[in-house]
Design a protein that fits this description.
The chain is mostly helical. 71% of the residues lie in helices and 0% in strands. It has 6 helices and no strands. The longest helix has 29 residues. The N and C termini lie far apart (35 Å).
């Protein structure tokens, strides 16, 4: 896959793992530690992706006018519509699954799943930092 396809694939793989383990954790209490472990790994991976994207964006900001909305939410013309929809849908599924499963199993370790959308946001940021289209900085236009 080219053009950041692996980032979208990884985002959806994490979303699938989170959805499966969280739903199983709602139904089978003995599987909640597995759901907790998956949520923890995805949250920590999301933190790494988030700061990795930020580091790449800092380097690109010397020549490109990078905004937070474009970087982490792929707003405007930063990404093709298909990429924006795919990564945005992955993030949306993570948010919905986190809220639903935490609500269905109140006061359990499934509540930690609320932090998983950091993974989806980090994936969007990494895609934006590596492949996003940004306008040239104002001071670079005159050169």
């Amino acid at each position: 896959m080219t053009g950041g396809g692996r980032i979208a694939l990884a985002s959806w793989a994490g979303t699938a793992a989170f959805t499966l383990t969280s739903l199983l954790g709602v139904v089978v209490a003995a599987l909640r530690p597995v759901a907790f472990a998956v949520a923890t790994v995805l949250f920590l991976a999301g933190c790494v992706l988030f700061f990795w994207a930020y580091a790449i964006a800092v380097g690109r900001s010397r020549t490109d006018a990078i905004g937070i909305g474009g970087l982490y939410f792929l707003a405007g013309d930063t990404a093709p519509a298909a990429v924006r929809r795919s990564l945005g849908a992955s993030l949306a599924v993570q948010i919905v699954v986190a809220i639903v499963t935490a609500s269905l199993a109140l006061y359990t370790s499934l509540a930690f799943g609320i932090l998983v959308p950091v993974y989806g946001l980090g994936a969007m940021g990494l895609w934006g930092a590596r492949h996003g289209s940004f306008e040239p900085r104002a001071d670079e236009r005159g050169r």
